[in-house]
Amino acid sequence: MSTNLLTLEAVQTHIGAYHILHGVDLAVPRGQLTMLLGRNGAGKTTTLRTIMGLWHASQGRVRFGDKDITALQTPQIAGLGIAYVPENMGIFSDLTVKENMLLAARGAKNAGQIDDTRLKWIFKLFPAVEKFWNHPAGKLSGGQKQMLAVSRAIVEPRELLLIDEPSKGLAPVMINNMIDAFAELKASGVTILLVEQNINFAQRLGDTVAVMDNGRVVHSGSMAAFSADAQLQQSLLGLAL
């Protein structure tokens, strides 16, 4: 079995007339949390969307384990055990928290059919999901919506989570709660690829890091080594951690 759960090989992505990804090489080790860093516009979100099949690579390969998923449609990719939490969270505001969760639990026809053990685990990770179970999702705070978005992604067992800027706009206490939850998710064996701008978040959670610039991965390695190299941080991100 490969040590990498997800591999991108020379991936290029065009969106209309725009050439966004220029040959992305990326390896996401199995059972680890990989941080995807880079300046705004570097191609991080496009990379996640390409993996998920929302946009298709014009060249290169995306592999999940030993399976080539480059040309698969998004529902097929999701069926392999990959979940995506977009930056805008994708919450259905007019539906309750329970109804949002039920939509993601494809094997359940009603809330009573959602795996009870798994649901209790999610409630432990994100108590707000249980507290506001019957409330309209649109009434939740930004942090609570983010917790719901991640909860939806894991309501069924997943091998890989793709998460785009989960700490954006959150209060520090919410960020700490999110860090604790992701640490527990990782400990459960889930592999995570996470785009993040919050450097403290990245340092505390990341096992490995990949830095993008101009549609390419320009650095990859351990998060600990990257955190210890202020000169490298400055050259790649324009700031020091």
UniProtKB/TrEMBL annotation:
Keywords associated with the record: Amino-acid transport, ATP-binding, Cell membrane, Membrane, Nucleotide-binding, Transport
SUPFAM superfamilies (UniProt xref): P-loop containing nucleoside triphosphate hydrolases
Pfam families: ABC_tran
InterPro entries: AAA+_ATPase (IPR003593), ABC_transporter-like_ATP-bd (IPR003439), ABC_transporter-like_CS (IPR017871), BCAA_Transport_ATP-bd_LivF (IPR052156), P-loop_NTPase (IPR027417)
MF terms (GO), sorted A to Z: ATP binding; ATP hydrolysis activity; branched-chain amino acid transmembrane transporter activity
Gene3D superfamilies: P-loop containing nucleotide triphosphate hydrolases
Top-level taxon of the source organism: Bacteria
All copies of domain ABC transporter, residue ranges: 6-239
Record GO biological process: L-amino acid transport
Transport among keywords: yes
Family of the protein in this entry: Belongs to the ABC transporter superfamily.
PANTHER family: ABC TRANSPORTER ATP-BINDING PROTEIN, HIGH-AFFINITY BRANCHED-CHAIN AMINO ACID TRANSPORT ATP-BINDING PROTEIN LIVF
Protein name, per record: High-affinity branched-chain amino acid transport ATP-binding protein LivF
